[in-house]
Amino acid sequence: MAALDVPAAAALDVLDRLVDRSLAIAEMNGDGVRYRLLDSVRAYGRERSEAAEVASGAHAEWFGEAAARAAEGLRGGEQARHLAFVRAERADIDAALAWAKANDPTLALRMVNGFGWAWIFLGAGADAARRSRDALSAAGPGAPAADRIDALLFAAWFEASGGDLDRAFADVRAARDIAPLPRTLLFLAFLHSQQGRPAAALEALAEFLGGSGTGREATSGAPHEVPPGEHREVASGARRGATSGETRAEADAGRWEEGAGRLLEGWARTGLGDTAAARAACDEALRILTPLGDAWALSHAEALLGGLAQAEHRYADAVVHLTRAADAAHRLGFAAAEALHLANLGRAQQQNGAPLAALDTLDRSAATAETVGELRGAAFARTRRARVLRQLGRFDECRAELATARGFYEVAGGGDGDLLSAHLAASLDDDRHGLEHVLAAARDAGDHEVELLSLDALARLYDAAGDHGTASELRAAADALLPLAGHQVSREDREDRQDREGPSRANERAQPG
Question: What is the pLDDT of residue 221?
Answer without folding.
Answer: 35
